[in-house]
Amino acid sequence: MTEPSLQLLRPEQLDANGLVVTNPANGSQVATVRRYDTDALTRIIDAAEAARHGWAARTAKQRSDILRAWYDLIIAHTEDLARLMTLESGKPLDEARGEVKYGAAFIEWFAEEARRAYGEVIPTHAEGKRIVTLRQPVGTCAAITPWNFPLAMITRKVGPALAAGCSIIVKPAEMTPLSALALEALAQEAGIPHDLFRVAPAVKSSDAGDLFCTHRAVRKISFTGSTAVGKVIMAKAAGQVKRLSLELGGNAPFIVFDDADLDRAVEGAIASRYRNAGQTCVCANRFLVQDGIYDAFVEKLAARVGAMTVGDGVANPSAMGPLVSHREAARVAGLVAQAQAQGARPVGELADVPQGGAFHAPMVLADVTTDMDIAHEEIFGPVAPVIRFSDEAEALRIANDTPYGLAAYFYTADAARQWRVMEALECGMVGVNDGLISTEVAPFGGVKESGFGREGSSHGLADYMTIKYCLLGGLG
């Protein structure tokens, strides 16, 4: 091993003939990791099913203490984990450090919530009888996670699963398994049983998904990814009526009204659109700006974007990094070219982009209209299409005219409008005068074709538990 951060991984997680992980900033090989075929995955599921009973039988405090020890180890290894993440995903080192802390916060939160999975006593309906409810773990779980947040997408699924008393198997994204494998190694160091939480890169992703949907021991699947794949999982899991949490595609509007604080709106736009090179599910995807400030907003945003630096996230920790692959960079470039052919106009100077990596310059597109494809596609790249609107009713019509409903943002100084628009937006999460909404203490999730279920907060723990109603008779 020449890369020091790879020392976090155990030898059995690596395989010279396994899955090749490359750095999207320069195409170099970072590591090769072990992959699991269907037979091996079946054995892992069976072992997790056997392990969960002993784990669930531990006291909530015992589970809490072990999760807390895991959290402490993650924080202690922040630099190594961040470097691994930058090498495999391309995101700049500063953002990777932030993700480690954000991801660790879910472990800390659910370590605390493990001790608060309360049942209830319900006033009885008859003499000599009492009614209670218990919250119990749903059972063995499976998670399928994406490449854009390779650490945090795992902790916010594994944290509540383990806190609730479940076992869980994670299939990480093929392009970014290293962060996940490092988390697994640290979990075992903290005292989490080997078979209880496993990270298993698959020989073939679709086969792993099929197995999770059909293996009877798997009681719940949590998936973060595209709506198209989420629908396939939902259909296949229906055969056994499995419990699901689906966090799927988005098309988040970012609305700026005439009365907004323009500088604050631009700062929020930068944070929401260009973080992780625009590769986040809650990114502002469409900028809707009212007539009176449209030109001023475009000008200010383009000036900020043109001043960005782009580069290798290890060498320049604060630069915007590459997209995750050359294929993704080409896809985003195709969307931009199509939008320009349909009449969109790039604004301002473009940042210099290094040669050889999967880079795409951050940019702003003005004169975008709602009939352009870029207004409906999930861009997943550093491009801000700006659409003009005239009044509140038009803004809401455009914002809600999508099958997706994950997140939305809007800026206004009018308190009454804040409540009207907040309530009228058809989405699971809303940022009002703020471009960053993710936190472990709040429920993360969407509506419509953006999925269902919630991650984070007490609701995230409840998604890994079932309610059992118990009637105690003969007490009179």
UniProtKB/TrEMBL annotation:
GO biological process annotation, one example: gamma-aminobutyric acid catabolic process
One MF annotation (Gene Ontology) recorded for this entry: succinate-semialdehyde dehydrogenase (NAD+) activity
Domain Aldehyde dehydrogenase: 19-469
One Pfam family linked to the record: Aldedh
InterPro entries (alphabetical): Ald_DH/histidinol_DH, Ald_DH_C, Ald_DH_CS_CYS, Ald_DH_CS_GLU, Ald_DH_N, Aldehyde_DH_dom, Aldehyde_DH_Superfamily
Keyword Ribonucleoprotein: no
Keyword Translocase: no
Family annotation (PROSITE patterns): ALDEHYDE_DEHYDR_CYS, ALDEHYDE_DEHYDR_GLU
Protein name: NAD-dependent succinate-semialdehyde dehydrogenase
Organism of derivation: Aurantiacibacter xanthus
